[in-house]
Amino acid sequence: MNDSARVAPAVQSILAAARERPGGEERLSVSARSLPDALAAAEADGRVPLVAEVKPTSPTTQGERTDDPVALARSMVAGGAAALSVLTEPEHFGGSPETLRRVRRGVDVPVLRKDFLLHEAQLDVVEADVVLLIARFTEDLDGLVAAAQARGFQTLVEVHTRAEVADAVAAGADVVGVNNRDLVQLTVDLGTFERVAPAVPDGQPVIAESGVLTPADARRMREAGADGLLVGTAIMDGDVEANTRRLVNA
Fold it and tell me: Which of the pair, 59 or 83, is modelled with greater confidence?
């Protein structure tokens, strides 16, 4: 599916840059740490399974975080994060492949590469445990999921509608992520997860993305069936270890 013409101008700008971004020169082969296993281990330990995001900046936040990303990542793990997400999009989010490379070397939990990946060669830029693929913007979701998995990556396929859930499951997504942010208006509604998640088949890991700011939000998403939560702003704004711990203990 490719619905880029209807999205917010800020996202159109991100997509335009992503289309021009080159891929890697050599095909990668990755030995991935399991995200579903990490989420299940956190659950068994009595923690909210949290994917904490190293997010220097974004079009929907104010300010910029300039701390060493490896130190931030280690603080998140110390706070109880089951896994991490690292932005590699440079122009709009301040991320880079080198940041992900350093973070993954510095921690022992699964690390998600969060970016707008549109063609196969972009998978070969940097090793990660999981790659984000956005159903709405992917011309050949089946092919890109297969290409990622052939390299050893796990796939987190992001959806916003029930129809996209069906596409993600049919493509063989390892994990489905329901984004509470509407990329048409950039508005956030936690009710999106509550409406969309019931379409995810039993046994398919599903993560709630965007909009979780408080322990009450975390509990709401968990009650709606989230196997994990992907949280950036609420963790990066202040003491990241304390913010992580506050959510994993929700």
Answer: 83
Cβ burial, residue 6 (10 Å; 0-12/13-18/19+)? exposed
**Has residue 167 been placed in a domain?**
yes
Q: Structural domain of residue 195, as residue ranges?
A: 4-21+40-248
Alpha-carbon span 145 to 131, nearest angstrom: 9
pTM recorded for the entire structure? 0.93
| Residues in a beta bridge with 52 | 84, 231
Other C-beta atoms lying within 10 Å of the C-beta of residue 133: 26
Phi and psi at 191, nearest 5°, equal -65, -20
- List 215's β-bridge partners, or say none: none
pLDDT digits (tens, 9 = 90+) for 203-233: 999 999 999 999 999 999 999 999 999 999 9
Q: How far is CA 45 from CA 108, 184, 212, in A?
A: 17, 38, 21
Read off φ and ψ for residue 202, nearest 5 degrees. Answer: -55, 135
